[in-house]
Amino acid sequence: MDQINGLHHVTMLASKAGANNAFYTEALGLRRVKTTVNFDAPDVYHLYFGDELGRPGTVMTSFPFPNAARGRRGAGEASMTAFAVPEGSLSAWEERLAPLGPTTRETFLGEERLLTEGPDGESLALVEVAGDARTPWTGGNVDAGIGIRGFHSVTLALRDARATADLLRIMGYREEGREGAVTRMRLPKGNGAEVVDLHEDASAPPAVQSAGSVHHVAFSVADKATQDEVRRELAQAGFQTTPNIDRDYFWAIYFRTPGGVLFEVATDEPGFARDEPVERLGTTLRLPRQHEHLRDALKGRLEPLEGVSFEPLEKIS
């Protein structure tokens, strides 16, 4: 399989929309590129944070369920999400993030990285990457010289990594190296977000997903026709996927990996500018067509977010 381009997005569970929004936009300096709701629970936000356009390989998304309890780390989940930053920038990030909580600097598989946590205890890392040509979002308060370029990797926590490694090989990944209990898998070429680390711990308890947990990891393909090819190849390899699902800004298929992690394959098209001008991305509450009739009710249920209007874009324009 050579259609996978790398990561598309990572979706996590959160407990407070305001705190989640503030951390990813203010502390990390990402752009909120879409403010919408969960398709299956429309009284819960679905927030998207990334680069200027929300390009695949840059987008962290969240479902903030109000007052959700903390999840429990364990096997069968994506245990850490890492972002790529320029060489020499970790000292600045260390100083920037220190007031928000403890950070740890380390060298791992030959790369310098800074470990930290988000507001719900989600495990995050900033990894120095040389020559990453992706352009950071500079409309926030983080200087372009240290700005996040997009994802570097995700780490999957597994009791047995072998079957998941075999799946990733089917998806085009190749083993690049090992350190301790971690096996690094990388696409030979892709969108810059090309690494998946497999952390094996046979004694790990099963993860319990809630606030701070990654709900699913999405991989990028160009378009729906390519997605159909991937779906057929996964079926031939014995994986049962969902039908293609319209998520407004991409088409999605989902399947459960041998280690229990939920994977998605998402299209790069049509993108987040399909229903908002680029200069206004994320500033209005956009609702799926089937939930538009709930707009007035949602005004009283959803936590207000700074810079977000609940009025339809058409009325604002």
Count the DSSP helices: 6
Q: How much of the polypeptide forms β-strand, as a percent range?
A: 25-35%
Quick check: average pLDDT? 96
From the helix content, strand content and strand pairing, which structural class follows?
A: alpha+beta
User: What kind of sheet is the major sheet?
Assistant: 8 strands, mixed
Could you state the order of secondary-structure elements as H and E? EHEEEEHEEEEHEEEEHEEEHH
CATH topology: 2,3-Dihydroxybiphenyl 1,2-Dioxygenase, domain 1
**Gyration radius, rounded:** 19 Å
Number of strands: 16
Q: Which term fits the overall shape?
A: globular
Account of the 3D structure:
This is Glyoxalase family protein. Pfam families: Glyoxalase (PF00903). It comes from Rubellimicrobium mesophilum DSM 19309. The protein is of the alpha+beta class and 317 residues long. It has a single domain (7-274), classed as 2,3-Dihydroxybiphenyl 1,2-Dioxygenase, domain 1. The protein is 16% helix and 34% strand. It contains 6 helices and 16 strands. It has an 8-stranded mixed β-sheet with strand order 2-3-4-1-13-16-15-14. Strands 6-7-8-5-9-12-11-10 form an 8-stranded mixed β-sheet, with helices on one face. The radius of gyration is 19 Å and the shape is globular. The model has no long low-confidence stretch (mean pLDDT 96).
